[in-house]
Design goal:
Chains: A alpha/beta, B mainly alpha, C alpha/beta
Helix content of chain A: 25-40%
Number of helices of chain A: 14
Order of helices and strands of chain A: EEEHEEEHHHHHEHEHEEHHHHHEH
Distance between the termini of chain A: 30 Å
Radius of gyration of chain B: 23 Å
Strand order of the largest sheet of chain A: 6-7-8-3-9-10-11
Number of strands of chain B: 0
CATH superfamily of chain B: MetI-like
Shape of chain B: elongated
Number of domains of chain B: 1
Distance between the termini of chain B: 37 Å
Oligomer: heterotrimer
CATH architecture of chain B: Orthogonal Bundle
Radius of gyration of chain A: 21 Å
């Protein structure tokens, strides 16, 4: 097995009483696209900032190539944002924006050449056409490509993408996702993409990790996980994707609880359809669901769900 | 390539200039200001310093309280000094004090605002407490005390105005920096590994510079009025003839009772016009650089 | 059966510094009582402009021509007083971004009773409040949250409050402009379920606008796809989604992949180029520069909307039954 690029070990990040990240193990391999799926309030954005070294863990650690992550690793870890318009300083030209990463790391080579290469790799060809433009003079899709070029110019090992297509037009979406996948396939870059969009995961991810209220509750290879989800939360999530056909909708009541008041036992149990339908009772695990926290999924797990019912069925079967 | 980028930036300034000129208020402001700037620069050509000196004025046989009809452009005062000469040279003092004090105001205000807004946390609280402290102290008594303690000189005047009027600028700049800090491009720069200094220089400063510029032009009239006030209260430099000081002397020596309008009117109108010019320019600039105000026009 | 809403040759033109920019260029459609129409398209295609034009909510300086018949009356020529009445009692609109549409310093219940009291659809304040609580219940918000301020509610709850507000005066038509775009998946499903329930229970007619074609097939029985200010394809929603005949609809349908469909796995599909600038539309068929199937003839003239299948129409010279 190859060495992991990023290892997150038993990570906890608290903001006062709020446990934004509450025990996460995760490994990102070189050359893979890992989709971190979750709704707002699941803690995925905090996790990303910890991997960047911009938020300090309350406990646990984030290792980047075996060394503890801090802001010094940033040239190796780059970021793509949800809203490309906001991510570009309106007073700077495309070439200045793309060159910023190089200037920060005091790049010794030919800056103009590096910028042009990055732009063409991001699909802005010929680069000369874009260098002197200001962000408001190009389209939304092109702006996201500029953000990607600015991230790729320092030749990072890891790209963190936070909802990279959520604010783009539907017809642009495929092109940007294709670009990300292509960069991974041609450069061996790893991409950790944070999204609530399961279709995006199906489009480009090798693996999927589903996050709920500060913890990863299911991981697995994309096809396995999306074809046959195990955790009731993943199942419900998948059933409400408008793109899934022929699956009975399972709409959960309420919303993700406040991370200041994480429910006891399994954190999902107050909304869990398995518990509500009496299925847990039949399996004889209802008490566990309410009172005992399922073990945190390890970073090495290839396919696992943090759910008492899944474990009980596996033992029984 | 950098040259071309520079060209594009210059283009933007050309656009701002054109837009400025197209706004009537900006145009009027510039014309009035240009008149007084030319007057101040060309002072030796249109006026002399001799008749500002009462001894020389007396030697030249100028009358006391001479009306404009009797002794040329704007008559003379109780010391037989030429009011025209005082007015012309006074414009230099008023403009100089106004600009220098505003510069000081903006320098302190922007520095405090940027540091406070960007660094945040305890430093922000501390700086904001100091700012509020300056804001709640009645301005005029503080300035009077400072001016009295430091002594009556031009430099002290500038210093007193600067040190007492920066807090509102600091608060304005801070609030702008706080909004900018939330923008994703600051996040992006951070995640590229940019230091705080880098972020401030590359992303914060260029985006607050317009605001600072507009604020500067709006600070000038306030500085000029403050200078007038302090001089009128007798805290100005006795050696130099600023407009404020002219007004003070006219008032003290009963020019109003004597109906010697030529003594107090020029300085008064001069102040009003210069203040108006800077205010018009400042407001026009503000509207151009602040897109939120643009829609309201 | 007469149509509830009938839009005829609607055009909307913005006046900008670059001259006149057409946002909607001759759109006609009808909506039956109890029917639901989904309008799909990307930003700048004119779908939101059209929704606002139907209730005359566009700012001054924008020219709207054509006819918008709500029942027998033309909304575009109505007197202001009548228009105000129609806006709540005849047709109501739900916008996206629920936070801005609610007054932050007013209790939720007061915001819902406001239109009821204004239009006197209930005899007194007491009855209006009872109705407001009832409406909140219908959209799934418990009565004890009625006294809350908007910031005390979650994004999904605020969106539901907006729906309840729109229904306050029992309109015949509800226009929902991207009501779920900013919401999480589960919350979106909850809101869609509420709309679906209301439609079934109250025989409410609905125009639903979004860029996500599959959401529309879930809530609407008919679909219209807009591109560059015109409808380029329409028909029964399942049919349009499963068998699109216009290449743009095909691209839009494929943009959000069907999970489990092997063809889209590791193969995201999109269109090259960007949505067109309404101020500078390409000649001929405005879609031809981005169209994967374009032929020379596409540059010549803009194709009209013609039958392309059973009950289906498309504005494409290559889409003929």
């Amino acid at each position: 097995m190859t060495e992991a690029l990023v290892v997150v070990e038993d990570l906890h990040i608290h903001f006062g009483a709020a446990r934004a990240v509450d025990g996460v193990n995760l490994a990102v391999m070189p050359g893979e696209v890992l989709a971190l799926v979750g709704e707002s309030g699941s803690g995925k954005t905090t996790l990303i900032r910890a991997i960047q070294g911009l938020t300090h863990p309350t406990s646990g650690k984030v290792l980047f190539e075996g060394k503890e992550a801090d802001a010094r690793h940033l040239p190796d870890v780059q970021m793509v944002f949800q809203d490309p318009t906001g991510a570009l300083n309106p007073r700077r030209t495309v070439s200045e924006i793309v060159a910023e990463g190089l200037r920060i790391e005091k790049f010794k080579g030919n800056e103009a050449e590096a910028v042009s290469t990055a732009l063409s790799r991001a699909g802005l060809r010929p680069p000369e056409r874009f260098l002197r433009r200001f962000p408001h003079e190009i389209s939304g899709g092109q702006r996201q490509r500029v953000v990607i070029a600015g991230a790729m110019v320092t030749e990072p090992r890891l790209l963190l993408a936070d909802e990279p297509v959520a604010s783009l037009d539907a017809s642009i979406r495929g092109e940007i996702l294709g670009l990300l996948r292509n960069l991974v396939d041609t450069t061996g870059l790893a991409v950790l993409v944070v999204t609530h969009d399961l279709g995006l995961a199906w489009n480009i991810a090798d693996r999927v990790a589903v996050m709920y209220l500060g913890r990863i509750i299911e991981v697995g290879p994309t096809e396995e996980l999306l074809d046959s989800p195990k955790h009731p939360y993943t199942k419900a999530l998948l059933s409400v994707v408008p793109e899934t056909r022929g699956m009975e909708q399972q709409i959960l009541s309420g919303e993700i609880p406040d991370p200041k008041r994480i429910p006891s036992g399994c954190r999902f149990h107050p909304r869990c359809p398995v518990l509500q339908s009496g299925e847990s009772e039949r399996l004889g695990i209802a008490e566990r669901c309410r009172g005992e926290d399922p073990a945190i999924i390890s970073a090495a797990a290839t396919r696992e769900a943090a759910c008492w019912a899944v474990k009980a069925i596996a033992v029984a079967g | 390539m950098t040259v071309v980028v520079g060209d594009r930036k210059r283009q933007r300034w050309v656009e701002v200039a054109r837009e400025f000129w197209q706004a009537r208020s900006g145009r009027i402001g510039v014309i009035i200001l240009a008149f007084f700037v030319i007057l101040a620069i060309a002072a030796p050509l249109v006026a002399g310093t001799d008749y500002i000196n009462p001894v020389k004025a007396r030697a030249a046989g100028l009358p006391q309280w001479g009306t404009p009809a009797e002794v040329g452009p704007l008559g003379t005062d109780h010391f037989r000094r030429s009011v025209w000469d005082q007015f012309v040279y006074g414009s230099r003092i008023s403009l100089l004090v106004g600009l220098a004090a505003s510069f000081l105001t903006i320098l302190i205000g922007s520095a405090v605002g940027i540091v406070s807004g960007f660094v945040g946390g305890k430093l922000d609280s501390a700086l904001m407490r100091i700012t509020e402290w300056f804001l709640v102290i009645p301005f005029l008594p503080l300035a009077i005390v400072l001016a009295a303690v430091l002594g009556r000189s031009l430099l002290n005047m500038i210093f007193v105005i600067g040190i007492t009027s920066w807090p509102s600028t600091a608060r304005l700049v801070r609030s702008q920096v706080l909004t900018l800090k939330q923008r994703t491009f600051v996040d992006r720069s951070r995640s590229l590994g940019g230091s705080g200094l880098h972020v401030v220089r590359q992303h914060i400063l260029p985006n607050v510079s317009g605001l600072i510029l507009a604020n500067t032009t709006l600070a000038v009239p306030i500085s000029i009025l403050t200078e007038t006030t302090l001089s009128f209260l007798g805290l100005g430099n006795p050696q130099t003839a600023s407009w404020g000081k002219t007004l003070e002397e006219a008032f003290v020596n009963g020019a109003i009772a004597r109906n010697a309008w030529w003594y107090y009117l020029p300085a008064g109108v001069g102040i009003v016009l210069v203040v108006l010019a800077f205010t018009l320019i400042g407001q026009t600039l503000e509207q151009i650089v602040d897109p939120r105000l643009k829609d309201r026009r | 059966m007469t149509a509830l809403l009938s839009v005829r040759d609607l055009t909307v033109t913005y006046r900008t510094s670059q001259g006149e920019v057409p946002a909607v260029r001759g759109v006609s459609f009808e909506l039956e009582p109890g029917g639901s129409l989904g309008l799909a398209g990307e930003s700048g295609c004119g779908k939101s402009t059209m929704a606002n034009a139907i209730l005359r909510l566009l700012p001054a300086g924008i020219t709207t021509t054509g006819e918008v018949l709500l029942g027998e009356e033309d909304v575009l020529t109505m007197k202001p007083g009548r228009l105000r009445a129609v806006r709540w009692t005849g047709a109501a609109i739900v916008f996206q971004g629920a936070l801005h549409a609610l007054n932050p310093v007013q209790r939720v219940i007061d915001q819902i009773t406001e239109p009821i009291i204004l239009h006197k659809t209930e005899p007194d304040k007491k009855a209006a409040e009872k109705r407001a609580v009832d409406l909140l219940g219908q959209v799934g918000i418990p009565a004890n949250r009625a006294e809350d301020y908007p910031h005390q509610l979650s994004g999904g709850q605020r969106q539901r409050v907006l729906i309840a507000m729109a229904l306050a005066c029992d309109p015949d038509l509800l226009i929902a402009d991207e009501p779920t775009t900013a919401l999480d998946l589960m919350v979106q499903a909850q809101v869609l379920a509420v709309l679906e329930k209301l439609r079934a229970e109250r025989q409410l007619s609905m125009i639903f606008i979004t860029h996500d074609l599959s959401v529309l097939t879930y809530v609407c029985d008919r679909l219209a796809v807009m591109y560059a200010g015109r409808i380029v394809e329409r028909g029964p929603s399942d049919q349009v989604f499963e068998r699109p005949t216009h290449p743009y609809t095909r691209a839009l349908a494929a943009a959000f992949p069907t999970i489990g469909d092997r063809e889209s796995r590791m193969n995201p599909s999109g269109l090259k180029g960007d949505p067109p600038d309404p101020a500078a539309l390409p000649a001929g068929c405005p879609f031809h520069p981005r169209c994967p199937d374009a032929i020379d003839r596409c540059r010549d003239a803009e194709p009209p909307l013609l039958p392309s299948g059973p009950a289906q129409e498309a504005a494409c010279i290559l889409a003929r039954p």
